[in-house]
Amino acid sequence: MQKPNLKKNQKIELTIEDLSYEGKGVAKVDDFTLFVDNALPGEVVNAVITRINKNFGFARTLDVIKESPDRVHDIDAIYAQTGIAPLSHLKYDKQLEFKRNQVVVDFNKIGLKDVVVNETLGMESPFNYRNKAQVPVRQINGKLTTGFYRRRSHDLVPMENFLIQDPKIDEEIIKVRDILRKYKVRGFDEENQKGQIRTIMVRRAYFTGEMMVVLVSRTRDISHYKDITNEIMDNPDVKSLYLNVNSKNTNVIFGQEMTLLAGKKYIDDKILGHTYRISPRSFYQVNPVQTQNLYKMAIDKAELTGKEEVVDAYSGIGTIGLSLADKAKHVTGIEVIEDAVKDADQNAKLNGIENADFVVGKTEDVLDEWAKNNMSVDVLMVDPPRKGLANSLIDSLKNIQPKKIVYISCNPATLARDLSLLSDTYEIGDVTPVDMFPMTNHIESVVALTLK
Ligand SMILES: C[S@@+](CC[C@H](N)C(=O)[O-])C[C@H]1O[C@@H](n2cnc3c(N)ncnc32)[C@H](O)[C@@H]1O
């Protein structure tokens, strides 16, 4: 391929041919690919080139010359600047089509051409769904400011309405910001590694309304912290307030030190009628409405009769295993984070569930041991992180041979890879994408495999 003579900051007219998996418009100049922010297939746009790499480049739309009928207009331009909701310029039904299509593309690429991919299960109201916010804080023009990063940068764009977060969380962030301003607490200055508050994290339990606030600070000492604590706790919905200290020059949000300033250690929420305790570091699904739909679908696909030995691998705080425990003989959860396993044990007790145990460890290590000891599993639920299943786990599964595997995936590319590796031993059922993250390019899907 001859690289065309393109330069950063050059303005150029582009015809958009496709949408990348990240939700960017794809345009070709000769054979060279440009990924274009805020551009949809079928559109012709004036764009400015923002980066040129060896094999591809990036551009940003300046204005749209020929517009797609699928474009949404009433979305604030701020969301395009920040990338907080990278698909918000695309009509929602087209977002659902895009997600289904992305699964089809990944399956076709790996040779799984016969697998049926159902329509994406979308939300009735696809905004304001997130139950958790981690909002960066900076000192701008002498004021502590909350907002979100401009795309591909750490420049803060001030923002009060985050579009996809629970509006009560947005309100709480403003309240906390104003209390910190009142006591002249400084926002973080990333360049000079000075100032104090780096992030405000707020979680709000959808079914109970309880809120947890975590202030992430560069330093331990915050002046007037008692007054600040009292004023934040004046909101009766805030049940838990933590201070986290992170003095490192890092993109990781939390530091090691987590101190409870006021209230209880956790908040409680409900999923499918069970209560769960959520600590500041717990993994907890961010879309409460769709989580219930996803879990119901996964549990249906497991076709439990009450006689099965079930493994809930990658179990987090135990939510999937505990949701299905009344339909199984016994459930074992496997999770690598010790605190999450403690939460899961606690959650089993809290809900009076006696046929579930949780073990700390890597799924691949624990099931390798099980395979060596000829232990049997009837149904395996897996819900791994984006990188999917370890190769050694696939080998163990071929020995253990669960009758059914239900795979919940947040990355269709690794899902396709893993299913292809299991396809000689397992019949692959139909795949259903479930839209857990509307307005973003993230794709969750669920599929059941049956032993041949
Ligand atoms: C996508 S989350 C799913 C959690 C839970 N099933 C839920 O629905 O809330 C993945 C979980 O796997 C855990 N994890 C990551 N790698 C693991 C591994 N190799 N073995 C076991 N757990 C792992 C993470 O800590 C996280 O809790």
Automatic annotation (TrEMBL):
GO MF assignments: rRNA (uridine-C5-)-methyltransferase activity
Domain TRAM, chain residue ranges per copy: 5-63
InterPro entries hit by this protein: MeTrfase_TrmA_AS (IPR030390), MeTrfase_TrmA_CS (IPR030391), NA-bd_OB-fold (IPR012340), SAM-dependent_MTases_sf (IPR029063), TRAM_dom (IPR002792), U5_MeTrfase_fam (IPR010280)
Keyword annotations from UniProtKB, A to Z: Methyltransferase, S-adenosyl-L-methionine, Transferase
Residues annotated as the enzyme's active site: C410
Transferase is among the record's keywords: yes
Superkingdom: Bacteria
EC number: 2.1.1.190
Keyword Lipoprotein: no
Record-listed S-adenosyl-L-methionine binding positions: Q285, Y314, E335, D383
Gene Ontology terms: biological process: rRNA base methylation
Family, per entry: Belongs to the class I-like SAM-binding methyltransferase superfamily. RNA M5U methyltransferase family.
Protein name: 23S rRNA (Uracil(1939)-C(5))-methyltransferase RlmD
